[in-house]
Amino acid sequence: MTGRTHPSAFSRFGIGLAVLALAATACTSGGAETQSNSTDPAAGAEPAALAIAPEDGAETVAPNTPITVTAENGTISEVKVDQVVPDEATAEGGEEEDPSLYEMTGTLNGDGTEWISDWNLRPGATVTVTATAENEAGESTELVQEFTTEAAVPGQRLELDPYGTYPANGQTVGVGMPIVLAFDLPVTNKAQVENSISITSEQGVAGSWRWLDDKRVAFRPEEHWDPYQQVSVEAHLAGVEASEGVYGVRNTKIDFEIGRELIVTMNVPDHEAVVTVDGEHERTIPVSNGKASRNFDTTSSGIHVLMERYEHLTMDSSTVGIPEGSPGSYKVDVQYAVRTSTSGEFFHEASYNGNIGSANTSNGCTNMRMDDARWFFDNTLMGDVVETTGTERIKEWNNGWGFWQLSWEEWQSESVTGEPYVTDGSIPPGSVHGEQ
C-alpha cells in the first residue's frame, strides 16, 4: 500500500488485517512459537519489532506532533489511536462531540514499515496508540504506548466562527457556492491550517483555497460545481498550531448539497433578467437597475453569487457611506431582498419604482415588481449565479463572493500551499504538523 490512506480505505485495510491477526499463532510483544518440523521457509522468522513516537509516558507533547510507528522484521498491519479529553475541555457549553470526528488515519510507506498520522492531536488529551505488525510467518506483534498532549491555553484556542462560515451544515446551495471558513482568531500558519481541511464531493473536481484575510479562507472549484451532488467538508483543526501558541481545539464536519443549476443573465440596458434552470428557460423578469450617475449607483458587471436574503429590509444609504441629508441619500423599506455584494447590491422588490422594465433609475440595486421579487426570493438559493453585463462598473473579486471574477490561474496562484486540491476525499497535499 502506498500513498496516504483515505479514511474508508484505511478502515478496510485495518479490518482485513485484524482478521488475519486472529488466525495467527500468537499476538504478543515478543516472538511467536512455531513448529520445529515445519518446512515453511518463513518458520523461525524473527518476530516483528515495533517502535512508536512520541515515547511512552511522555507528557505535554505539542498537539501538532505527528505519531510515527516503525516496524523492523515485518510490516505494519494496523494502527489505532484513541484520544481522551476531559469533558470540560471537550465541549464548552455541554454539547456532545461526535467521536468519529477524531478518528485518526495515517499514511503507510511503500514497504509497510512506517506509518505517520495524517492529522494533529487533540490538545489536553491522553493518547493511546496501539500498533500491530506481522513478520514473514504471519505472526503478530502488538505494542501499546500512552502519552499526553499539551492543553490549549484559554484565549489561544482556535475555533470556527459560525457567523462567517458558509454554507451551513445541511444546506442546499447553488452551483457557484464557495466554501468560506471563518476563524475566531488570526491565522499565521496558513499552510498548516489549509492542509487540515479535506473536501469530498460526489463528482471530484480540482479546486483551491485562497485566504481573504487572516481570519477567512475561501475554496472554489476550477469551474462551477456540477449540480445535484453531496459535498462534505472536514476541518481537522484540533491540534493545528494556527499561530505561535494558538491551537485548534475541535474538528468540524459540514455536509451540504449542490442543488439544480440556476443561472440569471442580465444585460442592464435590456431592463430584464433571464432565469434558466438546468439550461432551460424558467422566467424573464422585468427590472430596473442603477441609474449610473456615479460609480456607487451603477449596477456592477461581472459574475455575482447570491448571498444572504431578507423578507423585509430597510435600505439605508448611511450604512454604505452616504449620510442622511447628503446628495443621493435614501432610506426605504423593501421586501424580498437577496444580496449580491457586500457593497450593497441586492435583487429586491421596489413597488415604488414605476420604471421597472423600461428605464434604469435605481441606486444600483436590481428592482423588481412584487410578484417577481417574491418568486425570485422563493426560488433561488444561496450560491446561485448572476451574470451581469452592460455597465462600466466591473465587480471586484472580493466584493462579496465575486470569486468567479478571477481566472482559475489567478485564483489558484494565491493558495499558500501552491497546489490545487481534488475533492475526491484525498488528503491535502502538504503537512499539518509543526517543525520536527
Note the main sheet: 5 strands, mixed
Oligomer: single chain
The total strand number stands at: 28
- The rough form would be described as elongated
Q: What's the tally of helices? A: 5
The CATH topology of the largest domain is what? L,D-transpeptidase catalytic domain-like
Low-confidence segments, given as residue ranges, are: 1-39
Pathway: Cell wall biogenesis; peptidoglycan biosynthesis
Keywords: Acyltransferase, Cell shape, Cell wall biogenesis/degradation, Peptidoglycan synthesis, Signal, Transferase
InterPro entries: Big_10, LD-transpeptidase, LD_TPept_cat_dom, Transpep_catalytic_dom
Protein name: L,D-transpeptidase family protein
Which secondary structure elements does this structure contain, and how are they paired or packed?
Layout: H1 7-23, E1 27-28, E2 49-53, E3 68-72, E4 75-84, H2 87-90, E5 106-108, E6 114-117, E7 126-134, E8 140-148, E9 157-158, E10 172-173, E11 179-182, H3 190-194, E12 197-201, E13 206-213, E14 216-221, E15 229-235, E16 241-243, E17 246-248, E18 252-258, E19 262-267, E20 272-277, E21 280-286, E22 302-305, E23 309-316, E24 331-339, E25 346-349, E26 366-368, H4 370-379, E27 385-389, H5 408-412, E28 421-422
Parallel strand pairs: 1-8, 9-17, 10-18, 19-27, 25-26
Antiparallel strand pairs: 2-3, 3-6, 4-7, 5-6, 7-8, 11-14, 12-15, 13-14, 13-28, 15-18, 16-17, 19-20, 20-21, 22-27, 23-24, 24-25
